[in-house]
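LOG
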Amino acid sequence: MFASALLILVPLFVGFAVHLENRRLLTWINHMLEALVYLILGLLGISLGQLEGLADQLNRMTGQVLVLVFGLLVANVAGLWLWHRWQPMTLASAEESRSHVGYRRLFLGAAKPLLAVIAGMALGHWLLPALGWIEDVASGALMLLLLLIGLQLRNAGLSLRRLLMNRQGLGIAVTLALTSLLAGLAMAPFYDLPLMHVLALTSGFGWYSLSGIVVGDALGPAWGGVAFLNDVLREIIALVLIPLIIARQPAMAIGYGGATAMDFTLPIIRRSGGLDTVPVAIASGFILSFLSPVLMGLFLAG
């Protein structure tokens, strides 16, 4: 049972162990990562499009996604509110309402992965014959993706020790992870899945480009779609919440975006909350980016 977890974790740790100094190679890795993400999301879409009874499957997925999104939203917000009460975070340079946030560009960026899956679904449902090799190709691409993610995290110019010593960032990350798992325990009766697999669904922490792939590879394209949509919606909700609440609840604003706090939602965190939020957001996002594949791999092996 643990062999599947090792398949997920080994490439990640191998990549994280390798230090690179060639900037051109690192740039190539970043471009390769983006291409792989869209390739695998497209393959996930093709698999979804070729499911028997597609309309019924999509109806079922809608209910499953809504339960997951709402349960995680309530648990995460409550936990992050309690963390802020215990360890208040004050901002010296909040820029809410004074800075221009490129919402159109951000929402278009969030829409791209959805379009990749939808395009794959259209191809799989109307144009392509049944392709038995899609899962093998997706699995191989997943291993390469995790290797490159490990390389990217290791060579991002961030000190792991300094990130772990950022008290606010570490606290926010741990709070989000624990409340997500508690939400999984509470929501498990609503899903026709083993408890460990439900916990895997709640361990994406907003990293849709990984959760949909990993869960889909282990549980099939329908559950991969549920994981993917849950984490895409987390990112979209975070884009709306951050500028509205960061001045009063910075930990909640930074934390709810999960792993995206170190990349996709970082610009809006910086513009809405000021420079004080940047180290916290990077630390929280980095820790959750590392925890997510580890937890998903372990839970899916159970």
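LOG (cont.) second protein
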Amino acid sequence: MTPEVVIAGGGPTGLMLAAELALAGVDAVIVERRASQDLAGSRAGGLHARTIEVLDQRGIADRFLAEGKTAQVAGFAKVSLDISDFPTRHNYGLGLWQNHIERILADWVRELGVTIHYGHEVTRFVQDATGVDVELATGQRLRAQYLVGCDGGRSLIRKAAGIEFPGWDPTTSALIAQVEMAEEPPLGIHRDAFGIHSFGRLEYEIRDGQVVYKDHGPVGVMVTEEHIGPPSDPTLRDPTLRDLSEALIAVCGTDYGVHNHTWISRFTDMTRQAAAYWDKRVLLAGDAAHVHAPDGGQGLNIGVQDAVNLGWKLAQVVKRTSPESLLDTYHAERHPVAARVLRNTMASVALRRPDERTKAVGELMAELLSMEEPRRHFAAMMSGLDIHYDLGEGHPQLGRRMPDLDVVTADGPRRVFTLLHDARPVLLNLGEPGSIDITPWSDRVELIDATYAGTWELPVLGVVTVPTAVLIRPDGYVAWVDDPARRGLADALTTWFGPPTVA
């Protein structure tokens, strides 16, 4: 087997990356240490607006929307942040457990022809100037151009590559599990002097378009521990059913007859970020690149978005369309996004402390977030709709997500997101048809003449005048905006999609 890219880890990040590479025509394989996708946990419980937009860009958002429940899920420091007035078709979040998210992604990945090797784990690898040799626990060896670690916070790939993981040690820890219980637990979210605890049914069905949870079957449990786990590194020792039972008794006075666990995991507020997102032939994405407290439900979302940022760039490097230096922009763009998440989760954890002084700060924060501008600022941040990559000075849209405009093309009415289903860059000409010539890049960039009358909005900036042309990257961010002199288009095309083809 000689894939071009080996992806270690078949969670949401690894699956999304595999799909992006497949759409770009790159041969990638996933190696996942779990024996099957059925063993996927439910550490995460939903999708934020920007992630839903990303899935819409690939034409698969409806698969998730059909199984989950839309709701206002953005929040900070116990304050719910409504985004229903934001200018996006998906001005909501989606409640959907991670195991279902993974299942839907895995089905899509298989449709794209990607092979997923369950029950396979990377044990070591060796890099050289042209590629990486990957050894699996089964003894099998793979040779690839690149290896991407999507193998979680305890990433073997990151450690073996020698990439530093600076940050802060944990101050609190919790157990999360999928179990059965002989007694009915108090469903919902509960707070006390220990911290936050929750119980929720995992099995559900869709009735009349609504999610209805069953009154039997497995329970998702989260319980804050009285003490932080093993002091050296709470993530290194896998917790047991006994640990969960003892934690429940300490908090609730009973363990509700907990038994027959599918999986048990521990998470903490340990906050760390990889010093480099790529080194030679190894790249990192998702939790392998950044770990933080689960406050705000952002981890899965930024991992999927890491994959969408990285996929097309890595594909172009593999295909030698672009130089390897393009991968520098992956770190430059995604590292600050995760750093901001690390900051806001640490702040949120601090506001969870039960002492009176912290409660006073929380009350002031809640008062602040009831005001319009702070609410919009924090809601845009938590939902991922305000992400702004630094692509230089220019139009306010530059470096921001492209709105899903309704346009009219030669094929009839379209939404902009439908133009991105194949993960190809698009130069959308909203000016005079035929006025732009990108022949030297026509094998890589799709030029579409369209019309649109109106304005569009950004969650933070408000109304922006529609430009006459925009260059949209495969990840849905704007790489160039037209100006009266039409300057910089050739440079932008070369920067992002390689040098022009010489006739």
